[in-house]
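Closing statement on the sodium ion sub-project.
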Amino acid sequence: MQREHWASRLGFMLAAMGSAVGLGNIWRFSYVAGENGGGAFLVLYMVSVLIIGIPLLLVEVSIGRKAQRDIVGSYKKLVPDKPWFMVGYLGVLATLLILSFYSVVAGWSLYYLWGYITGDMAQMPLDGYGATFDTFISRDYAPVFWHGLFMIFTMVIVLVGVKNGIELANKILMPVLALLMIGLAVYSVTLPGSGEGLAFLFQPDWSVLKDPAVYFSAMGQAFFSLSLGIGTMMTYGSYLSKSQKLPGAVVGIGVMDTLFAVISGIVIFPAVFAFGIDPSSGPTLVFITLPEIFYQMSFGNVIAVIFFMALSFAAISSSISLLEVPVAYLMRAAKMSRKAASLLVSIGVFISGVTVSLGMGRWSGVTPIGNRNILDSMDYIASNVLMPICGLSMALLVGWYFNRKEALHASDLNNNQIGGTWYLLIKFIAPILILIIFLNEIVNV
Ligand code: PFF
Ligand code: NA
């Protein structure tokens, strides 16, 4: 059977941007930045995107385009005689872990969307939005319902085939999301006390750089936010035909994703300080600050509906890219139909997500890694360990297994200054940085 392809380069770019821009930019970025001191973290994060993220994004997409296979198949095809494909399995594992908690958090977003549609959310709860949210996520059934619903949406789109649904949805939703975020940012900046929030984000307190954990978190956030290293971009790249030029597309994806993160920081932090919320309060941060903002705004209710709709769609355009990795793998390796593969993986992810959801309540005492609950542990393994390891491996493959000419050619670069700089970054600088940051964290754990 013929493999599917994008209709156009724009279709690929939109899908890849859809994968990159998601909960990571709003939900994860704001609380990770909050936990790691704000401004100095933002600088490290941007440096990571520039010297590790974007160069590796080009590596990943070009491997996929060259091999025209899923992640495991791509490694097998390009290096038939060595066990590089093991990295592919790690990538598949990472997508399953991420999707398990991503879908739970996206379920929270759907719940909010529904709450604003019905109007229930518009009334300020007696004990405030924070306490009400904590009560909701610690319940046994309700959050699992929304997680299941989100997985069904994700499954249906992947099941139909990536091409038709996603390309169109992204074309409409990405600009809407951008406009809304900018509008919210303008509003948030006018809140009394917003200066403190902006200072937190834009006036770096360099003393946090003494802590190796900050570098580790910045790198993990860059990988997570760019959907990097674990096969989503490789699989999407594999649906590109050889005639499409990559470098410009990849830079566009990286810049867009970073822009979304900065803007959402401008939305969140002024409100965090204006409402006296602790910026290091973790994964629930945006779900507590945003309702406070909407409550204060005129027409806040309407804006909230549109916002949570956009957020939910941004989440879906990322979750389908996550689901596509194991599905593409099973379609080739187990010769399953797209339908059967989507169904099987979605059921598995649903069950694994139930443990994540219970980990916010009944099982909150279960802390597999350090003092992290189930969600944070899965996220830690996937984003801070598996993504950098897989990213490092693909840099080594293209930097060291390919020769210089092959590497440049695969990525549509020429032997000029840009090509040379990229090659230097992926061959030496990015691998060394990843290793140093990684070992530093492991030693200090
Ligand atoms: N990049 C997405 C976000 O920022 O929300 C999340 C994500 C998608 C991570 C796909 C990893 C991935 F493979
Ligand atoms: Na992102």
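Residues 192 and 220 are 33 Å apart (CA to CA). With this model delivered, the sub-project is considered complete and its resources will be redirected to Aim 3.
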